[in-house]
Amino acid sequence: xxxxxxxILPTHEMTNQPPPLPSINLFEGDIALVEAVRRSGAEGAExxxxxxxxxAGDERVQDLARLAHRHQPELRAFDRFGHRKDAxxxxxxxxxxMQLVFGDGVHSLAWTAREGGHAARxxxxxxxxxxxxxxxxxxxxxxxSVRALRNNPVLEHDGFKFGQIQRLRSSWRTRSVxxxxxxxxxxxxxxxxxxxxxxxxxx
Length: 203
Description:
By secondary structure, this protein is mainly α. The protein has one domain. Helices cover 49% and strands 5% of the residues. It has helices at 5-8, 31-39, 46-56, 59-70, 92-103, 109-112, 117-131, 136-150, 153-157, 190-202; strands spanning 74-78, 84-89. Helix 3 (46-56) runs parallel beside helix 7 (117-131), helix 4 crosses helix 5 and helix 8 crosses helix 10 (190-202). The chain is flat, with a radius of gyration of 20 Å. The model is unreliable at 168-203 (pLDDT under 50).
């Protein structure tokens, strides 16, 4: 029987590092956050936040965030035939994270919660930021864009409804975006293009 490398080549034991973080509930385990939600009049969203806290704190989501940061987006300026492509390829882990946060309503809870919507959405965004910060930009900009959309007389004339922003939860199927400078996972760069494209999908 073959011996493992750890047996053949023993090394020192690590005693000065914390153990791996297990699955935790990022809402229930945060007393200050729970109290803030209740003080803000958003206690009606607690069942949602409890489910979100459990999902965002799951070990698998932690692994998705690790993979999304480990495998940076890659610019594909040309295809294999030399034709201009200008596409950015994201790792599947990033796409899955985006599906999770948009599916959880980080972009729209302010208008779908029965009470304290904006406070509830702030808490939800805080929870998911602990799981992965890379998804915060597109969700935050989608949320913030509603004010601009509402103040646009053209969209108002065309009958834009706040409820249409909910459609975004099923709109994350983008596999590429137009080229832009800077890091693709830094605020204000490529994720902004995702937010713009997703906002356009809801109108």
